Every structure is written in structure tokens, then in C-alpha cells.
């Protein structure tokens, strides 16, 4: 990957449904400038309050398959019967321009992205327990009981992949979880490669053209 492509950092946030990923990412974007959320494509119907192009890009299955066939997606996955994907072109353009990207995806998509962007930083958001997760899914009132049970079974499987991420945040106290995610994002932006790309004159004076071994 070229130095230009590494100007921006890529933060991958993974979590089972209901663990608080979206709320945590919204907080991060609200307190840190220079971060942009990658808006995923999905074939599922919008939930109440969701906006096309803001929360997701809602498309038909036919359009999704057409875009996938054209190689437009960086990653894609089938989750709870719906397709999700990330735009390859948009991510590459933003990172080349020095924009730091936050990517909310499931563990399957995260694995695909890490293969293409090995320098990406990944964070897994976990609930304090599966029982707490059940309470949160029930409280938000968006799913029928049988759907909640399906999501809980999926969450148990998804938690087995937490070790594939560099960081794990247990979202027990929201304020503390927010603080942890902001800290990880700040650290990712301060890595040598990103700083070298953004301040080439400084490191050129020192004769440093690449990261030390």
C-alpha cells in the first residue's frame, strides 16, 4: 500500500446487535473532527428514524448484486438474512485524501477488510453479559421475541471472534466505553506512519523515510 493511501487511518468497530456500537460511534464522531463514518449498503428495510445515505444506503437485492458483481464493494456479508457491504472506491479515496475512516461492520466483514488493510485498527464492542444484551434488545422495542432470540444466538457466536480485534471494550458504563473508544481512535491517528504522511517535511529533515523496524 502506498504512503499516500496511508495518510488516513481506518478504525473498524465490530459488535453484536444491541451492544451499543452505533451509539458509541456517534459519540466518537461528535467529539473528534476529521473522522468520517463509512455508510454501508444494505438490502434490509429502514428502521424507524433511519435515513438513506446517513445511516445506510438502502438498496434492492438486485442492485446490491449488480454492484457486487462490478467489484464495487470492499467487503460484503449476509447478516440475519440481509446483505451488507462497504464501498471500496469511497474508502480508498477518503484515506488517500488523509481522512480517518470509521467502519461499523460485523466480524465477517472485518476479517475481509483486515486482509486488504492490515494496518487497520479494530475494536470489538461487547455487552457485560448475554442477559444484559437480551434486556437491551427487548427495551429498544424494534424486534419480535423470536427475532431477539435469534440475535442472541448470533451474538454468542460473534463474541467468539472478539479475539480477532486488537481491542475489546465492555460496554457496561456508556461514559467509560465512550472514553475508551475515543482514546483508541486518538492513538490510531498518532501512529508513526500517519504522522509521517501528514508531516513529511519534519521527518524528511531527520532522514526518516519509513517506519522504524
Count of DSSP strands: 9
Number of helices: 9
CATH class of the domain at 4-38 and 99-205: Alpha Beta
- Report the CATH superfamily of the domain at 4-38 and 99-205: P-loop containing nucleotide triphosphate hydrolases
Strand arrangement across the biggest beta sheet: 2-7-1-8-9
Give start-end ranges of low-pLDDT stretches.
Answer: 1-5
Amount of beta strand: 15-25%
For the termini, the CA-CA separation is: 17 Å
Q: Which value, in Å, is the CA radius of gyration?
A: 18 Å
Helical residue percent? 40-55%
Structure in words:
The protein has 213 residues and is α/β, with parallel strands linked by helices. The chain has a domain at 4-38 and 99-205: P-loop containing nucleotide triphosphate hydrolases (Rossmann fold). The protein is built from 9 helices and 9 strands. The strands form 2 sheets. Strands 2-7-1-8-9 form a 5-stranded parallel sheet, sandwiched between helices. A 4-stranded mixed sheet has the order 4-3-6-5. Strand 5 and strand 6 form a beta hairpin. The longest helix has 16 residues, at 174-189.
